[in-house]
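Tip: read the tokens left to right.
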């Protein structure tokens, strides 16, 4: 998202591929579950949807002004910074202020839920969107096209899909959500910490990895799919700031962002999910830090796209970087 437009870049060289202007002042955007529609939203409840054209009919070797096809526009009775989340089967959920809205792939309002609270995190399953709400009491909701259903209270947890299970990383432990009763089962107790400064991700071979920060320590904790502990290790001597986790192409990465008012530094570590070894493979910084969290995602074999501090974007060949560092004998 850039200057009220959706932009596409070539991940091989960073060059602009296309730019799609929007009629709304875009704050957030998301691609729906079947990856056929892009949705953009602004502060006053306006939503615009775009479809992907037949790639054979669009020249993508030069910047294009028509890479996406406008489909529809709608207006919700909402004011506030929006968070867009995909619905299983198509369509989106919009969080604005303390309210939730369900919008179909055709732009129809499916339902509205008032005074829920602000979205903290979410995870998409085959049947539901699982949403964690940021509030004093905390709550967890499962959502589909028929509307949201509240589950047992959990205080601002991070949900993650582990195989066919939904697990939750919370301030005081890691839980499993029972889809039948919508209750939670404690798998591993943690010293009370700050989930908003940590993260959780499903491991490629089953189980999960959590980056947890509490008053006394920062730890990586790996659990097997049955909830038993695989390993845990302190990382306080290695990282500072906020921690993010990314799983891609059968590998796991720890991303650390240390930011002050005048400087931002992002460091990427490859994590051995069996031995707990960390290998630092990338480091970048900026004296013009951009607001907001660092983001990253996989874009193909061994490569990840990452916000590298200050709003800059980098593509990292993780396998090549890991091999080069290990040959130099620099794991941690």
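Filled-in amino acids:
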């Amino acid at each position: 998202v850039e200057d009220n437009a959706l932009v596409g870049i070539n991940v091989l060289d960073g060059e602009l591929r296309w730019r799609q202007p929007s009629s709304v002042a875009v704050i957030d955007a998301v691609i729906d579950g079947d990856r056929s529609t892009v949705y953009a939203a602004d502060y006053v409840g306006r939503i615009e949807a775009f479809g992907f054209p037949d790639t054979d009919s669009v020249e993508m070797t030069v910047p294009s002004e028509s890479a996406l096809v406008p489909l529809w526009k709608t207006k919700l009775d909402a004011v506030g910074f929006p968070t867009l989340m995909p619905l299983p089967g198509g369509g989106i959920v919009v969080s604005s202020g303390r309210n939730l809205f369900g919008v179909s792939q055709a732009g129809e309002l499916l339902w509205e839920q008032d005074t829920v609270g602000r979205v903290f995190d979410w995870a998409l399953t085959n049947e539901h969107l699982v949403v964690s709400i940021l509030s004093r009491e905390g709550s967890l909701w499962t959502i589909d096209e028929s509307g949201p259903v509240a589950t047992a209270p959990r205080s601002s947890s991070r949900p993650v899909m582990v195989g066919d299970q939904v697990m939750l990383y919370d301030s005081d432990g890691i839980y499993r959500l029972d889809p039948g009763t919508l209750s939670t089962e404690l798998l591993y107790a943690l010293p009370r910490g700050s989930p908003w400064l940590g993260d959780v991700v499903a491991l490629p071979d089953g189980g999960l990895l959590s980056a947890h920060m509490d008053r006394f320590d920062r730890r990586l904790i790996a659990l097997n799919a049955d909830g038993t502990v695989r390993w845990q290790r302190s990382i306080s001597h290695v990282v500072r700031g906020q921690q993010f986790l990314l799983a891609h192409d059968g590998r796991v990465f720890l991303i650390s962002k240390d930011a002050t008012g005048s400087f931002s530094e992002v460091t990427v570590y490859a994590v051995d999910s069996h031995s707990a070894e960390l290998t630092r493979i990338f480091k970048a910084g900026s004296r013009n830090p951009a607001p907001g969290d660092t983001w990253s995602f996989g874009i193909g074999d061994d490569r990840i796209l990452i916000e590298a501090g200050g709003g800059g974007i980098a593509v990292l060949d993780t396998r090549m970087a890991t091999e080069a560092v290990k040959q130099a004998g620099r794991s941690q």
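The two ends are 36 Å apart (CA to CA). Residues 55-64 have pLDDT under 50 and may be disordered.
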